[in-house]
Amino acid sequence: MNTIAIDTVTQLLSVTAAGPAGTCTVSLENKIQHAETLIGVLETAIAHAGFSPTETERILCAEGPGSFTGLRIAYSTAKAIQLASSCPLLPIPTLLCYAYPFRFSNGTVVSILDAKKSRFYAQLFKKGKPLTEELDCTPDELVAILKTHDSILLTGPDAPLFQNAVESSLSALDYILIPYGNQGISQNMIHIALQDSEQYTQNIYDYAGPRYVRKSDAETKHG
Q1: Are 108 and 126 in contact (CB under 8 A)?
Q2: d(CA 160, CA 166)
Q3: Cis peptide leading into 65, omega within 30 of 0?
Q4: Distance CA 20, CA 36 (A)
Q5: In the predicted model, is pLDDT for residue 16 greater than 90?
Q6: Is 163:170 a contact under the CB 8 Å cutoff?
C-alpha cells in the first residue's frame, strides 16, 4: 500500500514514504518554517518509494500534541494529497509514537514533549497501551504522577529537558532515561498503522484536524 507519513511535531521535519520501490525516510532539521521545505521533502521521499502523489493509498499525520503551526502545515498538506488521490487520511497520536519502540518494556514508559511555558506534554504507557490521557502539566505535577509507578522509562525528544528541570526530585524514583524522537517519528507512524490495522485503516475523510491538547495563545487571549 502506497503510504506517506508526515511528522512536523517539532523543529525536525520527517517524512517516510513506503511504496513499490521500498521505504524512504527523509529528515531535515529546520531552521526555517516547515511550510517552505515540506513539499520538497515529500517529493523526494515518494519518488524514492516509487509512486506519485496521486497514487497515494494512505496518508498519516502526527495527530498531536506538538507545534501548533507544524501540525497545521502537515494536516493541510496531507489534506491536499487526500483530495488529489481519494485516499484516507489517518491521525496517529504523537506521544504514542515516541513510546512505540519501548512497547515490550515491562515498566512504565513515559513520553515527554516540551510544551513551552515551563510545562510538558506527557503520557504514560504500559506494554504499548496508554495508562493516562495526554497530559499538559508542570514538571512537579508530572513527578507527583510518576511517584505512583515503578520501573519508569522516560523517553521522547524532551525527556532530558524534563530531567534537568526536576533532577533532585527524580533521584528517589526508579527510572532510566532513553531520549528518543530526535530523528523524527514518521517511520513509527507507519509501523503503528500496520500493527493496529483495524484502528488505523478506517476511512477518515472528514478528519477535522490535529488535536492540540492545549489552546493556542490566540484562543486563550480571546477566551
Answers
A1: yes
A2: 10
A3: yes
A4: 28
A5: yes
A6: yes
pTM score, whole prediction:
0.90
Task: Check residue 199 and give its pLDDT.
Answer: 65
| Dihedral of alpha carbons 87, 93, 97, 98, sign | positive
Which domains does the chain possess? Answer: 3-93+183-221 (3.30.420.40), 95-177 (3.30.420.40)
Q: Which residues of 125-158 are buried (b: 16+ CB within 10 A; e: fewer)?
A: beebebeeebbbeebeebbebbeebeebbbbbbb
Helices (H), the chain: 38-49, 68-85, 94-99, 139-146, 159-165, 167-170, 186-195, 217-221
Is 188 within 8 Å of 97 (Cβ atoms)? Answer: yes
Q: pLDDT class for 204, splitting at 50, 70, 90?
A: low
| pLDDT(51) > 60 | yes
Contact 75, 61 (CB under 8 A): yes
Give the model's pLDDT for residue 5.
97
Question: Could you tell me the three cell numbers for 6?
Answer: 508526515
